[in-house]
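Explain this fold:

***
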Amino acid sequence: MMSRAVPYQENATGLVALLPDGRVRFLHPAAKPAIDAYNQRLSQAEGLDLEDFIIDSPLVDLRQFHLSAPAIAFIETTNLCNLRCTHCYASSGERRDSEMSTNCILRLLDEFAEMGVLQVFLTGGELFAHHDAVDIIRYARTKPFSTQIFSNGLLITEEKLRRIPPGQSFFVSFDTAVPERTIRGRMDFPKLRKCFELIKQHGHVVRTAVSVHRYNIGDVEEIFGWCIDNNYPRPQWLETHPIGRALLHPHILLTPDQIDEVFAVYTRCMDRYQQSMNDVDERSDASQSPDRPRPAIAGVETIKFCQQLERATGQEKCGRSVAYVNSSGDVYPCSNCMSNNAYKAGNIVERSFKEVWEEGFTDFRNIVFDDFDRCKTCAVHQNDIWCQFKCPPLSMNVTGAAHECGATEYLRIFMLRANEYWSTRKTQGFKLQLMARTAR
């Protein structure tokens, strides 16, 4: 049931494909017969060499630029959630009015596969609050695209994991969501600890993320340490943004006066996941230490590919290589636009996703990075630091205007400090790795 096919889409410049090793590349159209042949005889295929077909510098039309299908598509299966996290971008909790039926979600997965979507993120609300969550996951796994699951982990059971084909990638978020810590608790919270172990026992891969804010910064180091002690991959450090429910609770956002405290935690966490480039590589280290098994995490570079497109085109990835479908079937460029109910492109109950993708994003695709005038005087831009905050909905929430800046003052300072830190570490010969070398 587990798909090993190579998903691809046909664009004017050529194919865009997710290669077996996780890279995403533009390919010459002549690669299509080889990929089709590979996908049709998966059980017999010994390998697929597409290196000679890779196009390193594709020429694209920048006017209304977009891929023929999203590289990444999010499906919010339900807005129902067992938690009420203060920072939640989707303000999840109760079901939306007229949520998509399970059959509608399955048809959407069919359409994604036909169009050539490379990776699908199944999310919520809480995905496992949906009564057909496992059936949706199992169906997605029959498709060529890579499937990623987002969950808070608290509704995952052994029975559900047993029904999901081995090798599924889970992203389980973990953070103290309220000052009183009444919703999720710390990393030794028994149910979540058991969830992580069950996911591994059933042959799946799990990573975690922390949405860092004022009320959990004291716990972040403990979370990183817990992952090291239990041989889990490095957690993803996520800054809490002024979007969704956080707009109603601005007191949770970090402020410039906390930058020294936060960055001290950040550097201690990141230092534990670095190794010298002069050391033996991670694979050799693992092979020499059979008593320290490392999870097999297949890297999929869809996000990296979309970010490269942003830099190359000077246009945001959202609505061009990324799309978000909420549980009512409304289609947005991304989760931030969905949170603000901005730039809605259409609804898949009323039109096909393909029609919405081709015709519904005109206004959003007219926006380019050069429209953000404030960037020209920003130290982040002047230091050539990549910034993800040329984002109309975030800009609207921060400045009241769509084309100003989506970063708070704290985030601008953090980006400058982070750039200085990583530049120094690179000069010193260190690189960030997925697993901590001290894991036992």
Q: What stands out?
A: The longest strand covers residues 205-212.
